[in-house]
Design goal:
With 102 residues, this protein is α+β, with helices and mostly antiparallel strands. It has helices spanning 15-31, 66-74, 76-88; strands spanning 3-10, 38-43, 55-63, 94-99. It has a single domain (3-99), classed as Alpha-Beta Plaits, CATH 3.30.70.100. It has a four-stranded antiparallel sheet. 15% of the residues are buried.
Length: 102
């Protein structure tokens, strides 16, 4: 069953610098992860419900199943991506694993 790693990035102190590092360094690392079936990312521009706008960016990484995701992040490419996340993610950023209903 398809699983998705959902990454919510909190608002960085310097959004321009964060976006530059994210696009130029982090995204190429993500795209190199073995077993990655699909990758989507976007900047969050508004909270339509009028609530707090606390998130800056979301990323969604799709894998065939949990075993494929675990293997992907055990690889050298996955480890490099995780290390870069730890370096660039603003405090309060979160990661979730979602089972995709098909």
């Amino acid at each position: 069953m398809t699983v998705k790693l959902v990454v919510l990035y909190s608002r960085p102190a310097d959004a321009g610098l964060f976006d530059q590092l994210y696009q130029d360094v982090h995204v190429p690392l993500v795209r190199a992860i073995p077993g990655l079936e699909r990758f989507e990312s976007g900047r969050i521009d508004a909270a339509l419900d009028g609530g707090e706008h606390s998130w800056h960016r979301i990323a969604e990484l799709y894998f065939a199943d949990t075993a494929a995701m675990d293997a992907a992040f055990a690889s050298a490419e996955g480890q490099a991506t995780a290390a870069d996340y730890a370096k660039i993610a603003p405090p309060g950023s979160r990661m979730f694993v979602e089972t995709v209903d098909e």
